[in-house]
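User: Second chain of the day. Same drill as before.
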Amino acid sequence: MQITRRGALGASLALAAPAAAQPARLLRFVPHANLTSLDPVWTTAWVTRNHGYMVYDTLYSMGADLSAKPQMAEGHVWEDDGKRITITLRPGLKFHDGEPVRARDVAASITRWGRRDSFGQIAMGVLAEMTAPDDRRVVLRFNRPFPLLLDAMAKVAPLFIMPERFATVDAFTQITEAVGSGPYRFLRPEWVPGSRSVYERFADYVPRDEPAAMLAGGKRARFDRIEWRIMPDPATAAAALQAGEVDWWENPSFDLIPLLARNRQVTVEQIEVFGSVCTMRPNQLHPPFSNAEFRRAILLALSQNDVMQAVAGTDRSRWHTPMGFFTPGTPLASDAGMAPLSGPRSIDAARRAIEASGYRGERLVFLHSTDIATLDSQSHVMADLFRRLGVNLDHVSTDWGTTVQRRANRNSAEQGGWSAFCTNISGADGLMPATHSLLRANGANAWFGWPDSSGIEQGIQAWFAAPDLAGQQEAARRIQAAAFQDLPYYPLGTFRQPYAFRRDVTGLVRAPIPVLWNVSKG
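Assistant: Same format as last time:
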């Protein structure tokens, strides 16, 4: 696929919305993982981000042309040669507790987001002052022009707006409530982690008066109630979908797709637009992955093809390798630094390199999430690779929710820490350094695993300063070359995950995440 950053997808991204205007009663949705955290600032877990889109609204959202579109914002004005922006809120916005959305809520949300989000950290680094002169306007003044601010707010993992009382909670402290201003309210009393999460249509939500396009536009809640049913066993989820006990399964396992496709009451369709990138994240704070030579030795035996076949089968149309650090087929993708992934894979060569690195049998604690099919598949391949390499493997089988909680632990393996785990990122996150949280490598401020690479960070700054696409592409090549040296994570390939849903479910919006607004049934 060839995707440009703007204008590539066009108006065709939103499927035709149904004519029915009255909400239906219930949609039953099977998400890809159990919801264990309600705070989309505290964690980058996809399931919490998707929960965030249900409950919270965004100041700006990514439109069909991949540019930032006003969502809660009525509009904005840039002044002082791009160093000052005034954002004005739409009138009549309300939180689920009945309180109006005020500019001070927005300012507090920006501050909290800017402490944890990789793109937000860059924005806060050049922010001189932020004020809320009245209830509808927030003003940000920068030390230098920062034209990418709205792109930062509108990326797939966006700036969600919270009430001030929650947004002032420290960004490294997990919020345990979910009060937003989005199209659905979270019914916390009905939340049963591991079983279900329940959302109710917010009657006071006023959608934008425009069609839905990607993650922007009018968010019309067409169900009185949406239930997320947690079904980690693929066979159980497939049976429930075929029996009509659930309406939509986000991530059907690839081996069950032919069975589902033969059912005349089920539709299997590729709705998600960028694909998903498989990765393994090493912990660089402690041995063995604190040793760069050990990290690089793994590459000599790593087969991206083996991982992709385990995840998505032998049909090459569903997956892509070789994979670097930017989404294949997009402007910043290149072959820079990818030589270690080419040629025959060699366990013997990797073993010799591991021995030469000085590895002395330190325990490698590998967290294997078994309840998400794609993570389970790639984790099996990587665990088998570690066994064949002869490392001291501590193979911990667990669920994704536990991995999400445990990955924040910076301690050594002996103190309950970890060494590596597999995770997926959206292909949309890999379009550019500004949206690529896994690529940031500035030590304490980096994503879990806490890599520290001056080469990657210098390349990212060069990308921000580049005057044109050619300059950005050259900076991206520098970033990728440094990333294959320092390995903040291991790219394992990219795959396209179709959704499976009942035939009477219509209006799905093409986007990088499952969008549950504008969907109808019946």
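The chain has two domains: 11-228+498-521, 276-495.

User: Great, on to the next one.
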